[in-house]
Amino acid sequence: MLAAYHRKNEIEAGCDEAGRGCYAGPVVAAAVILPKNFKHPLLNDSKKLSAAQREELRPIIEKKAIAFGIGVIDHEEIDRINILKASFKAMHQAIAALGTTPSLLLIDGNRFSAYPSIPHQCFVKGDGRFASIAAASILAKTYRDQLMQELHQEFPQYGWDQNKGYGTAAHRKAIEKLGLCRYHRKSFRLLPQQGELDY
After folding, report:
1. Domain 12-153, CATH homologous superfamily name and number
2. Sign (positive/negative) of CA torsion 28, 18, 57, 38?
């Protein structure tokens, strides 16, 4: 059972990201403030849900949330500043996009770059502990999956509609055969001898 809050008298925003370990595409973060009485039987860590369950929950979360925000950092900025900083920057964007200012941030993971004037607390596997972080994980994941579906239309040979940019065997094999395209993260060592497609 997910906890409805960490501190009862705070306005808490749960924050999580998706796509940190991917070979291609952006990292996406979400921040969500839920009503303290929000409950849904499916709500859980997004990794424990099917794609269909996440898509079912997304509009419910967006409708019932007091506020939610999305942040996106593309592959070029990931290469420029590194994936950890890019993940924090995406979370900062998501927090800035909230229509209501939280008094406490609940961060999934063990590290975070402090957001100005709002205290935070980190929770390892927080998406399996707090409803607001679980909701953020679902929005981040579904929003990013949608972006990868769009990029798949441009480069279908990498199978991003299936692997969403993660380093599956099929994705690695496609990179070995075709080289990298412009949406791959060049700062990640994806193959021993990296080639690059000229498009």
Report:
1. Ribonuclease H-like superfamily/Ribonuclease H (3.30.420.10)
2. negative
Residue showing tokens 């690059």: 196
Going from N- to C-terminal start, the domains of the chain cover 12-153
Q: What is the mean pLDDT of the chain?
A: 94
**Which strand (E) or helix (H) includes residue 70?**
strand 67-73
Give 97's contacts (C-beta < 8 A, 6+ positions apart). 31, 69, 70, 71
**pTM score of the predicted model:** 0.94
Calpha distance 196→190 (Å, rounded): 11
- In the chain, % helix, strand, coil (3-state, to 5) comes to 40, 20, 40
Two tokens at 27?
A: 């990292």
**Residue 167 identity (one-letter amino acid):** G
Q: Report the C-alpha gap between 99 and 60 in whole angstroms.
A: 18
Please check whether residue 140 is in contact with residue 148, taking contact to mean a CB–CB distance below 8 angstroms. no
What are 13-64's pLDDT values in tens digits? 999 999 999 999 999 999 999 999 999 999 999 999 999 999 999 999 999 9
The DSSP line for 129-157 is TBHHHHHHHHHHHHHHHHHHHHHHHH-GG
CA 105 to chain centre: 16
- Contact between 139 and 70 under an 8 Å Cβ cutoff? The reply is yes
DSSP, res 28: E
